Amino acid sequence: MYSDEHVGATGEPLKDVLAIGIGGSFLGPLFVHTALQTDPEVVEFAKGHQLRFLANVDPIDVARNIIGLDPETTCVVVVSKTFTTAETMLKARALWEWISSALSLLKSLALILLMHLHSGISAGGVLPLSLQYGFLIVENQMLSHRASIDSP
């Protein structure tokens, strides 16, 4: 996404990611995103793109987080272990309605449902971060360091 090679259903380049999750599905990726924001090279690489997180049960949170986003150029990633968490699914439905009301229903495929077991370092955490920064940066900045920590 960071290089405009990833396009949405209408052919427009995707430029923003909205990640939905609660608990570890939200906190793991948010912590890594916050840490990556301290690296000037990473910040420059992601310039012009936004990664936002939705975790609050307050319905105003959805309205506040979509301000300035275009449904044609926003990828929504729903991260959940079971897809039964009421707050996560409520936000997913609200964003599905936001996308499908702006685009034709058949083109509303920018919603990615992702199941995971471990938040920060699983596909659930890595996908939104990779869409924002590119997988090579996420791999170099996070995954390679994880391997060194896990080693005896």
Automatic annotation (TrEMBL):
InterPro entries: G6P_Isomerase, SIS_dom_sf
Family annotation (SUPFAM superfamilies): SIS domain (SSF53697)
Hydrolase among keywords: no
GO terms of molecular function: carbohydrate derivative binding; glucose-6-phosphate isomerase activity; monosaccharide binding
Keyword 4Fe-4S tagged: no
GO cellular component: cytosol
Pfam families: PGI
Gene Ontology process terms (BP): gluconeogenesis; glucose 6-phosphate metabolic process; glycolytic process
Chain ranges passing through the membrane: none
Superkingdom as given in the UniProt entry: Eukaryota
Record key words, sorted: Gluconeogenesis, Glycolysis, Isomerase
Name of the protein described by the UniProt record: Glucose-6-phosphate isomerase, cytosolic-like isoform X2
